[in-house]
Amino acid sequence: MKMKLSETAGQISVPDASANLQQWLDYLLAIHPQEIELGLERVAAVAARLALLVLAPAKVITVAGTNGKGTTCRMLELILQQAGFRVGVYSSPHLLHYNERVRIQGVDAADADFIAAFWQIEQARGDISLSFFEYGTLAALLLFKQAALDVIILEVGLGGRLDATNIIDADVSVITAVDLDHQAFLGNTREQVGYEKAGIFRNGRPAVVGDPQMPNTVAEVAAAKGARLKQVGVDFHWQSTDEQHWRFSGSRWQLSQLPKPRLPLANAVTALAALEALYDELPRAAIEQGLRQATLSGRMEHFCEQPLILLDVAHNPHAARYLAGQLQTLPRQGKLYALCGMLKDKDIQGVLSVLAEQVDEWHLVTLHNERGATAQTLRQALPATTCCWQYDEMASAWKALSPRLHNADVVIVFGSFYTVSGFKEVVQAIGKE
C-alpha cells in the first residue's frame, strides 16, 4: 500500500510501515514547506533526544566554503579509507538519488536505512518542526553513530554558523573558499560571508582555511572563539613542481612529489592541512592513493571523451573562474559548446560573463522548478552578438545539440546541480529507448 499525504484537521499523515523512501521524502517536504530555515535550536533539541550531539569516539571534520566543499570531503574520505579508517560522509545536494547524501565506507546508504532513521526522528521530534535538510542531517548522524565509524566528515549545507551540521563540535573545522553566494542568507560582502562560515570554529581546536584571500572576519571569529587558525600561505604552503606533481609543506608534514589529483589542487592542499591538524602522521601510500583515486560526480566530470563532455555544477562566479581556467588548459581543435541552466537567485551575469569569450555556442535551458531561471533570462546576460539557442527543457536541448557535435569538440554542461542531474537523466533515458 502506498502512503497518501492527506491533511486531516490541519495535519499531514505520517508515512506508514509500507512507505518507500520517496514517500518519506515527500512527507518531509510537505510538513515543513519552508525549504531553508537557518538556526540550531530546533534541530539541536531533537538531536539531544536522540543522543546525537556527541559522536565520540569518532573524530569529526566539518567542511564549509562557497565552493570546493564536496571535493575536499571526497579527498579526505579516500585518503582516510586508504589509511584503514572507517569513514562516513554527509554531503548535499545530491545529483540523482537522495542516497548519495550519506556514504559509509564509500557506499551510499540504503533506502531502508534512511526510512528507519526518519521513523526514529519522527518519533523523537514530538511537536518540534524540522526542515527537510534538518531531517536529513539527523538521519545521517543516526546512521553514522550506528556504523561505529572512526571519522565522520560533515559538509555544511549553507553558511556554517546556523547550518544544522553545526550542532556537532568538530575536531577540525575547514573553510575551503569564501565568495558571494546565497546572499539573502549570508550577506552581500565576503566579510559577512566569512563571518557566517567561521561559525563552525571551536575553542582550542584547529580551524583550517584554504582561501588565500581570507576575509578579516574569519580571523576575528577564530580569535573570539579561541580556535587554532591555520591559513594557507601562512601556516601551510604548497608548490607545483611539474605537470604531474606538487609539494605540501605544513607545520609538521613535508611531502614532495605528490600526484596531482583530478579534483582542484587547492582543495587537496586544504584536505592535507586538515589531516595534518588531526593526525601526527598518515601512510604516504594512503595519501597518494587517495589523491589519485579522487573524483566526484558533477565536478569537472568526464562524462564522454569523444566528443569531450564535461559536467560541472559551477553556479557562482568563483566556480566559473575555476571552470574557465580548466577549459583553457584543454588541448582542443573543435568548437566549445556550453549547455547551461541556472537558478534565478544566482549571479547569472557574473557567471556567464566569465565564460562568454571562451564559448563558441551557447545552448540555454529553462530549469523547471520554483527557483529556475528561463533560457530567455540567461540569454539577456550574454552579449547580443553571442551565438545562442534557447530551449524549454533539457531533452530538447540535447537532441538538438548532439547531432552537431564532432569528436574534436568540447561540451561543458554546467550552471546548477539541477542542470547536471537533468542532463544525466536525459542521456540515461535516451540510452533506454
Descriptive account of the structure:
- The protein is built from 15 helices and 19 strands.
- The protein is α/β, with parallel strands linked by helices.
- Strand 5 (102-104) and strand 6 form a beta hairpin.
- The longest helix has 16 residues, at 417-432.
What descriptors fit this protein?
37% helix, 2 domains, 8-stranded mixed β-sheet, 18% strand, UDP-N-acetylmuramoyl-L-alanine:D-glutamate ligase, single chain, 6-stranded mixed β-sheet, alpha/beta, globular
The total strand number stands at 19
- Supply Rg: 22 Å
What strand line-up does the widest sheet have? Answer: 6-5-4-7-3-8-9-10
Mean pLDDT: 92
Q: Give the name of the CATH superfamily of the largest domain.
A: Mur-like, catalytic domain
Q: What structural class results from the helix and strand content?
A: alpha/beta
What is the percentage of strand-forming residues? Answer: 15-25%
Shape: globular
Give the domain tally.
2
CATH architecture of the largest domain: 3-Layer(aba) Sandwich
Low-confidence sequence ranges? 1-10
Cα end-to-end separation: 30 Å
Largest sheet: 8 strands, mixed
User: CATH topology of the largest domain, anyone?
Assistant: UDP-N-acetylmuramoyl-L-alanine:D-glutamate ligase
Question: What's the tally of helices?
Answer: 15
